[in-house]
Amino acid sequence: MTKKKEDTPFSIEEIALRRTASEIRSINDVILKNYVNAAESFGMLCAVDPALVDAHLMAHAGLAREDIERLRKLYAAIAGPLKEHMMLLLNSGISINAIDALADAHEDVQVSAVKMLDASKVLRIDEIAVLSELREVKAKPDWMRWEKHRSSTLESLAQPAVKIKIASLESKARVVVDGLYRFDEYWSDGSFEHDQHLYKDCHRILVSDASQALREFENVVGTGESLVELRTEDANYLAASYFALRQVSEGNFGYGYGFSLQRDVGVGGLSLADALSQLVPFDDYNSSAPKKAAPLKVLELCAGSGGMALGLQAAGFQHIALYDKGLSGILCGGPVH
Hints:
There is one protein chain. By secondary structure, the chain is mainly alpha-helical. It folds into three domains: 12-139, no CATH class; 179-288, no CATH class; 298-333. It has 15 helices and three strands. It has a three-stranded mixed beta sheet with strand order 1-2-3, with helices on one face. α8 runs antiparallel to α10 (196-220). The chain starts with 11 loop residues before the first helix and ends with a strand. It comes from Rhizobium ruizarguesonis. InterPro entries: SAM-dependent_MTases_sf. This is DNA (cytosine-5-)-methyltransferase.
């Protein structure tokens, strides 16, 4: 006769796992039964005004509005299709999330889920989602499923192209912002006063750059008017970017206009550059803003400093003014050649 092989004793890890699983299962069973009991208590409140029920439970039961709605849905499910199978559900080890998903599911899905429980299968939330998807596929006619597939395919394949267009818009907007800062620097240091050709060139380039960015904006996002109609803060700020581009593209900045956004979109007063901040990544936008004051290029000296003036011109100053005993005797030094 052969000796019967003795069973291998469980390891410490296996014993710990078994005990933990058993404790969690017991705790879950208690929680589930109490949760279902809480939902069943709504049966006594069917004739009470729902608004009054909400107010009382929020004040005295510590429930949020979404908690109350969740219990209402569960009560409707267990009082309906699941009523005859509650003991099976409670003894199945189903989780709170799974029973909530089951309560939200269509009646056909609930029936299919009960059949799974009859087969002694553990019902998880992902399996309920699969059952819901299968029912949706069966319920829809072929053309609707084909259209969903066609639409989702087009959207997924178009996303890379959309990202490229957005990157192009950001790049063009950054060029405009850089140009506005450079324009403002020349405006502030007096360069435009002494070189009207420089003003016209910078103005013309900004108008051209803004026109290109505006066309890109309309191609990717739409118009500012359509954004304003959305009535959200984010849309308003994006609309401000659109109107800033349009204002610059029309040449309405600089002499006679200033550098403020003329269109009020409900986000407060903005400069043209600040209005474009929604289109420029933060690192690029911050790097576009001047980090330090523009270098001094204009210097005024009293009489007797002619020699010093020549040295300062050589050092990079663009304009030297020499005062000789009064404002009437001003000598202006040009660039050193």
